[in-house]
Amino acid sequence: MESMKTDLSSPLTEILLHQGERDLPFHAVSPPIFQTSIFCFPSYEEFRDALADEDSHYLYTRGNNPTVNLCEEKLASLEHADRAKLVSSGVAASSLAILSTLKSGDHAVVVRDCYTWVQYFFNTYLAKFGIEHTYVDGTDIAEFEEAIRDNTRLIYLESPTTLTFKLQPLKMVADLARSKGITTVIDNTWATPFFQNPIDAGIDLVIHSASKYIGGNSDVIGGVIAGDDAHMKTIFEHQFLPLGPVPDPFQAWLIMRNLRTLHLRMPQHYQNALKLATMLENHPKVEDVLYPLLPSFNQYELAREQMRGGSGLFSFHLKTDRLEDVKQFVNSLTLFKRAVSWGGYESLVFPAAVKYADTAPIPPDRLTLIRLHAGIEEFDLLQDDLLRALEKVRT
Known about the structure:
The protein is of the alpha/beta class. The protein folds into 2 domains: 12-259, Type I PLP-dependent aspartate aminotransferase-like (Major domain) (Aspartate Aminotransferase, domain 2, 3-Layer(aba) Sandwich), CATH 3.40.640.10; 262-390, Aspartate Aminotransferase, domain 1 (Alpha-Beta Complex). The protein has 15 helices and 12 strands.
């Protein structure tokens, strides 16, 4: 495995372990949890000032909370952003970021293979308000140029996408969007700020499902939006406060606690995934492997240019045309748990066909598509588990 370019020294560990924590109450080592719904004021005047500017004051935990804000400070620094907002889920993060850019009559350009709930949001929810969108594959800047209309206000990206792992040329898209006054939003959950910083490429807003690698232990749900002061103030006042997807202080504390090991977990996920992907692409019962940091991947050079490494999530196609072989493979796994989501310490398997009823037609490109999440277990154990399950597949 090639060495990563990521610098694991300060400032990364400064952010994860120390930022905002040098003056904790009572010289505590771990930040306290401010499990309070409201904050009181010593005077009428201070009460009035807080009500007039909730963005800058502690008034009601539905807006700001010290535990939540400390977590947000770290997340903003990790993403090279001015500010970050922690919200109740990844879906809330994407929805608020999208809503902050669009109104009735507007148009968005959206990467086709983005998260299914984002597709639902565009296809069903926003359509009720006369907001239109155009899906693009996203791999070629020409697609974005052709899809943009006079009323386009948003380009929504996810690079890599979470099932097919297609990349978008971030800097080219950002430059195009900025020249036309279009806001760009990217889901950076797969790469994490450890391996990719889209703001450095000119992207306006970065979102995450904090339930994945940022949380990292499959024990918390959350979402993150990060960007410049102007965008984030708009989101806080016009989307976050009215809609109320509030993170609980304990939820924020869990995310902050789990962040402390991000620089230890991500290299292990990367190492396991790359080695497993390499093993699988050389296996006779595997058709192909989709992992951006694999030299055989058709966007490998772009991946190397935009990212410092890869996470633990990738896909492959079994060399079969039988659903029974897919079921047999999945049911034969013992270490890879059958579950949705990803980004925790554990290894997971998600067959694309599981979303379809047995009597329903399954698209050919989904029938044998298997998504794996390589956890932080020993590589040999994961490899042996996959090899035993592959033996059950007929060729």
